[in-house]
């Protein structure tokens, strides 16, 4: 029988924790809804509403019921992905979210993969040549970039590469595809999306890669003189084999842990970057819904961003427990 590398007991406990976090998020959103001036009925109120329409609205949201029953109705509706209707558009909130969610995933996953690929590769190099001028300057530069807000980087990229202030107008200023064009071939659509994706994903990557680099650099410095590394060198293995197969592989576990934290950091940045570049994802939808008091859409967008963070953290846990099957829930390796 082949022994699995995945700790299923750990993952089951993490799954229960994820469910608990989603429940806590829903409870918080319900309390936020009740704390809003006028409640949800204020968002739908119109002087033109008849008594029958007003009664139907109160019945739809259980506003004529006790608070505990409203809470149960809220949890039940969100459990089946029934978020009601937008106050700004005559369509269900879920259809609006479903239209935006893939676009956010395209931006986030592209930026996340880029920043961790770049961060890990550079971190391996800096950690292997620790103490060198390149290592010290790269560490300071990465730490500086990590402290810069996403929106500032996004604005600078727009200024330099899109507005032609210095004679450069290479990339589009916003959107996901070319405006006023609806007839795309599959290849043309793909290339157009990639072209519009470069600056938004680039602004996320420029800040985010430093997190992975800083952790990878530190762990590489810890293993570079470990006994098994000295043994590999003594065997006459090529330096690249020692660096990547023996040192970097064992240094990846803390980077996976940092990736769990980096997910929320990257999604938070995606919300800001979507607004700057008019990327039609959940982040831009959330900002627009708040500005227009579209509470059903805003709360649903908050919920989906939270679910996205929890889901991606759980997937990262799977990678983490695969890299180090010795881990136990709530304990150190």
Q: How does this structure look, described?
A:
This protein is mainly alpha-helical. It has a domain at 98-323: MetI-like fold (Orthogonal Bundle), CATH 1.10.3720.10. The chain contains 12 helices and no strands. It has helices spanning 8-35, 39-44, 51-60, 67-79, 93-128, 133-146, 150-161, 186-223, 227-234, 239-276, 282-291, 295-323. Helix 5 packs parallel to helix 12. It starts with 7 loop residues before the first helix and ends in a 10-residue tail after the last helix.
List the helices and strands and how they pair.
Elements: H1 8-35, H2 39-44, H3 51-60, H4 67-79, H5 93-128, H6 133-146, H7 150-161, H8 186-223, H9 227-234, H10 239-276, H11 282-291, H12 295-323
Helix pairs in contact: 1-4, 1-12, 5-8, 5-10, 5-12, 6-8, 7-8, 7-10, 8-10, 9-10, 10-11, 10-12, 11-12
Kindly summarize this structure in a few lines.
This protein has helices at residues 8-35, 39-44, 51-60, 67-79, 93-128, 133-146, 150-161, 186-223, 227-234, 239-276, 282-291, 295-323.
């Amino acid at each position: 029988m082949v022994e699995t590398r995945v700790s299923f007991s750990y993952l089951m406990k993490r799954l229960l924790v994820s469910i608990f976090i989603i429940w806590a998020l829903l409870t918080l959103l319900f309390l936020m809804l009740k704390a809003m001036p006028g409640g949800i009925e204020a968002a739908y109120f119109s002087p033109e509403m008849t008594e029958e329409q007003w009664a139907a609205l109160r019945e739809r949201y259980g506003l004529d019921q006790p608070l505990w029953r409203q809470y149960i109705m809220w949890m039940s509706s969100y459990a089946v992905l029934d978020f009601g209707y937008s106050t700004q558009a005559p369509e269900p909130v879920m259809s609006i979210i479903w239209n935006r969610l893939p676009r956010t995933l395209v931006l986030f996953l592209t930026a996340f993969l880029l920043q961790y690929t770049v961060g890990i590769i550079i971190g391996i190099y800096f950690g292997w040549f620790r103490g060198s001028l390149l290592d010290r300057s790269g560490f300071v530069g990465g730490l500086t970039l990590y402290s810069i807000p996403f929106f500032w980087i996004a604005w600078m990229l727009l200024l330099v590469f899109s507005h032609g202030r210095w004679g450069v107008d290479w990339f589009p200023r916003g959107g996901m595809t070319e405006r006023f064009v609806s007839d795309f071939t599959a290849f043309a659509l793909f290339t157009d999306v990639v072209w519009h994706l470069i600056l938004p994903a680039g602004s996320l990557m420029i800040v985010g890669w430093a997190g992975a680099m800083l952790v990878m650099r530190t762990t590489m410095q810890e293993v570079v003189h470990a006994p098994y590394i000295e043994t590999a060198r003594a065997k006459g293995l090529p330096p690249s084999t020692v660096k990547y197969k023996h040192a970097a592989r064992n240094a990846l576990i803390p980077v996976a842990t940092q990736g769990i934290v980096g997910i929320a950091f990257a999604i938070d940045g995606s919300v800001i970057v979507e607004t700057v570049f008019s990327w039609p994802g959940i982040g831009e939808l959330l900002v627009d819904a708040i500005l227009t008091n579209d509470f059903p859409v805003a709360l649903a967008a908050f919920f989906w961003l939270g679910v996205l963070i929890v889901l991606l953290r759980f997937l990262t846990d799977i990678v983490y427990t695969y890299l180090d099957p010795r881990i136990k829930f709530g304990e150190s390796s």
